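About this split. The held-out portion is used to measure sequence recovery: a designer receives only the structure tokens and must propose an amino acid at every position. Recovery is the fraction of positions where the proposal matches the reference. Here is one held-out target exactly as it appears in the evaluation file.
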């Protein structure tokens, strides 16, 4: 039986980490135009934006390294210790960005230091999401795992919305000169105190019940990591492929909407920068509350029907959504953004509880971290860069829809080959119930379940 109080605290601590991570992404995405002017030489606006998105994407390329390092470490020394480490590192990386001098002040060292800070963020983030999803899933009763894990993504959009809202307020209230001169630093400096709050919450937690049942060993870390990776790729390559496919459709949709659309609306469609920020923010806030509702619903009907519906919706509705956005009116743009946003929450409400259920306890943290970050590095983090490059090369305003359609096709295949995890015990674990009545009911209904 699950300790409900501990489970709620686990959800809060994990969600705060996602909030801090996505606060940074919201800030970076919304202030990308300003960052391009501060950190890169004034060649052309397109070149500056491509450089900014390339720096955004490069940080994702080191995320698998963070997953390879922190994931097996979390399986070896515990989820809580590693999640505390990633929390501190991530917050410090964001804080440092707010302290870097501009290109006009230190020249080429400005983009170099920005790149280093982004690499630190990417490395730490490599161990964050897989650990948070594992932590919450291992603390949740089987029949409420979808609901409890969906709070992770609620934290994600909360962080993104807070970062976006802060940038929007600064853009409206400050002159362009002040915003470019020093105002852009404020959101990054706020990340430090947020990280300390997350660290406090995580240190108050105990290890998950599933991890406490495993016994650690004295094997050196390097050897333990290689052994874990050999196990993951040698014996669990099928669920790893499913994980990569599910993460692909989730994150291509996610980063196209959250990281690219503010710039797309202003740079491609000619909206005022402030209007672009506000429209994407409104769309995200309108769909945010549905994440937890869909997570609860997935405990009743299953994760896969919802994720499958989202994949089909991407294939069918992506081009209509971009055509609607291309009409240019506020109502049409908001309608197109809402279509993409509603599709996104089909994945954000189900993936945090689906991915950990693909792997057994002894490799769960490592496998989810590695699979998640390989997929994000190759497909998710590069989405804004690829979308901007395609628009620049073709001149077609609807060309980003091709990315969503392709992602939807991959996601649908992954869903069709995945076993429904809703209501089941995690692999290698006994069933987990919320109370004695549910425990007795599980015994009567599933006496042979491992």
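Reference sequence for scoring:
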């Amino acid at each position: 039986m699950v300790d409900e109080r501990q489970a709620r605290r686990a959800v809060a601590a994990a969600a705060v980490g996602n909030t801090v991570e996505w606060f940074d992404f919201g800030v970076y995405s919304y202030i990308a135009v300003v960052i391009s002017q501060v950190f890169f030489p004034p060649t052309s606006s397109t070149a500056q934006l491509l450089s900014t998105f390339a720096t955004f994407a490069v940080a994702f390329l080191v995320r698998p390294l963070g997953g390879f390092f922190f994931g097996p470490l979390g399986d070896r020394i515990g989820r809580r210790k590693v999640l505390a480490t990633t929390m501190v590192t991530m917050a410090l990386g964001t804080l440092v960005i707010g302290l870097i001098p501009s290109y006009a002040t230190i020249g080429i060292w400005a983009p170099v230091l920005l790149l280093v800070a982004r690499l630190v963020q990417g490395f730490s983030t490599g161990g964050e999401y897989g650990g948070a999803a594992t932590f919450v899933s291992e603390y949740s009763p089987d029949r409420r795992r979808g609901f409890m894990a969906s709070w992770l993504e609620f934290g994600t959009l909360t962080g993104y919305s807070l970062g976006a809202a802060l940038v929007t307020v600064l853009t409206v209230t400050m002159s362009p000169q002040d915003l470019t001169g020093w105002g852009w630093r404020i959101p990054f400096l706020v990340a430090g105190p947020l990280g300390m709050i997350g660290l406090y919450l995580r240190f108050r937690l105990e290890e998950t019940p599933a991890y406490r049942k495993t016994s650690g060993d004295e094997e050196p870390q390097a050897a333990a990591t290689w052994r874990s990776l050999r196990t993951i790729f040698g014996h669990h390559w099928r669920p790893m492929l499913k994980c990569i496919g599910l993460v692909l459709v989730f994150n291509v949709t996610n980063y196209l909407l959250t990281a690219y659309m503010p710039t797309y609306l202003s740079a491609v469609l000619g909206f005022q920068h402030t209007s672009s920020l506000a429209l994407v923010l409104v769309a995200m806030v309108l769909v945010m509350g549905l994440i937890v509702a869909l997570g609860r619903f997935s405990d009743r009907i299953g994760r896969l029907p919802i994720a499958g519906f989202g994949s089909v919706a991407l294939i069918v509705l992506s081009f209509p959504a971009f055509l609607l956005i291309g009409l240019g009116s506020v109502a049409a743009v908001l309608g197109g953004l809402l279509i993409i946003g509603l599709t996104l929450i089909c994945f954000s409400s189900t993936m945090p509880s689906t991915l950990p259920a693909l792997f057994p306890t002894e490799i769960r943290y490592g496998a989810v971290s590695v699979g998640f970050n390989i997929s994000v590095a190759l497909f998710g983090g590069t989405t804004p860069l690829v979308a901007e490059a395609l628009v620049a090369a073709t001149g077609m305003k609807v060309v980003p829809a091709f990315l969503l359609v392709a992602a939807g096709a991959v996601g649908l295949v992954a869903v069709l080959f995945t076993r429904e995890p809703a209501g089941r015990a995690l692999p290698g674990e006994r069933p987990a119930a919320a109370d004695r009545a549910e425990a007795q009911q599980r015994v009567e209904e599933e006496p042979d379940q491992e």
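Annotator remark: The two ends are 15 Å apart (CA to CA).
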